Amino acid sequence: MDGSVDGSGEREPVARKIIPQWSQYSHQHHTHNYQNGEPPMVSQLPRHSITTETCDLVCKVMLLGDSGVGKTCLLVRFRDNMFLSGNFISTVGIDFRNKVVMVDDTKVKLQIWDTAGQERFRSVTHAYYRDAHALLLLYDVTNKNSFDNIRAWLGEIKEYAQDDVVIMLLGNKCDSQSSERMVRREDGERIARENTVAFMETSAKTGQNVELAFIAIARELKARKNGTHNRSSFNVQEYVREQTQKATCSSCTS
Ligand SMILES: Nc1nc2c(ncn2[C@@H]2O[C@H](COP(=O)(O)OP(=O)(O)OP(=O)(O)O)[C@@H](O)[C@H]2O)c(=O)[nH]1
Questions:
Q1: Has keyword Magnesium (predicted)?
Q2: I need a surface site. Which of 11, 40, 53, 147 has the fewest CB within 10 A?
Q3: CATH number of 78's domain
Q4: Residue with CA at minimum distance from ligand 1 atom 27
Q5: Rounded-to-10 torsion of CA 139, 143, 149, 150
Q6: ipTM exceeds 0.85, yes or no
């Protein structure tokens, strides 16, 4: 036995996220009218996300960053194209969802682990770093503290993750009004450059760059698997730069 739920190598999360049913996310996310006053646990949710379908590549992607930066919202936007607005319910422990994406002719299954940003869950989440192929590290552009903590997060990554893990830094909530913004895009770019990681600003609210972040990860991991990575035929930092520039240019001309 590999300890997986369905024999596919996927482990049951050790802790559960206390959230309303996935299907109720859109508008009732924050109403606490659960049966017996208790929200359902992940183990009670439909396991439709765990499939036995064959994929050419399976990638484990972890979402990291301070509590409240928008990790769960980013995942929900990518997987279900929805936004969880309203009061914020913190993740407890760790949870995962799958999404299959096509990269050219390759079927890539992204197994996305959503971690709790709160300090008290760190020892739980550290145990998962070493299995991750890619890490999406988020800060909130309206929260300077979450940005200042990025160096500490990078330190933890260095300590617990594989040396060759793909890291992408995301400045989330870029839809926010300029009066609310506390971190300039250039500051995000600078810290990413200093640490040789890809960077972009995202919005789980509007969907800006959300798909691109995950697809760029999938492309990079596919390139590595095919052995094309070392020959520099694909570079995730370059790819992200090109794609975000393209998006900026087309929004300028439209
Ligand atoms: N304006 C705006 N708000 C966002 C965005 N993403 C998330 N939020 C809000 O930020 C709050 C926190 O979002 P979550 O996704 O729950 O944060 P998290 O990082 O998963 O937090 P933990 O589970 O505690 O680690 C919620 O109230 C969201 O509605 C975004 O892109 N734009």
A1: yes
A2: 53
A3: 3.40.50.300
A4: 88
A5: 30
A6: yes
- Overall number of domains in the chain: 1
Q: Are 139 and 201 in contact (CB under 8 A)?
A: no
Q: How confident is the model at residue 163 (pLDDT cuts 50, 70, 90)?
A: very high
Closest atom of ligand 1 relative to the 172 alpha carbon? 31
Q: Is the CB of 205 under 6 A from ligand 1?
A: yes
Residue 96 C-alpha to ligand 1 middle, in angstroms?
17
* Domain range for 144: 57-249
- Name the nearest CA neighbour of 161 among 132, 199, 125, 197: 132
**Which residue puts its alpha carbon closest to atom 12 of ligand 1?**
68
Average pLDDT, the chain: 80
Lowest model confidence (mean pLDDT) among 41-45, 66-70, 175-179 = 41-45
Going along 35-165, which residue ranges are E strands?
57-65, 94-103, 106-115, 134-140
Spatial neighbors of 63 by CB under 8 A, at least 6 apart, are 71, 72, 74, 75, 112, 113, 114, 115, 135, 136, 138
**Gap from CA of 87 to ligand 1 centroid (Å):** 9
Whether 236 is in a domain gets the answer yes
Q: Tell me which DSSP letter residue 63 carries.
A: E
Residue 79 covered by a domain: yes
Atom number in ligand 1 closest to CA 87: 27
Instruction: Give yes or no for residue 52 having a pLDDT over 70.
Output: no
Residue 238 within any structural domain of the chain: yes
DSSP-based three-state secondary structure for 11 = strand
Q: Exposure of 108 by Cβ count < 10 A (0-12 exposed, 13-18 middle, 19+ buried)?
A: buried
Neighbours of 158 (CB within 10 A): 13
Write down the pTM of the prediction: 0.80
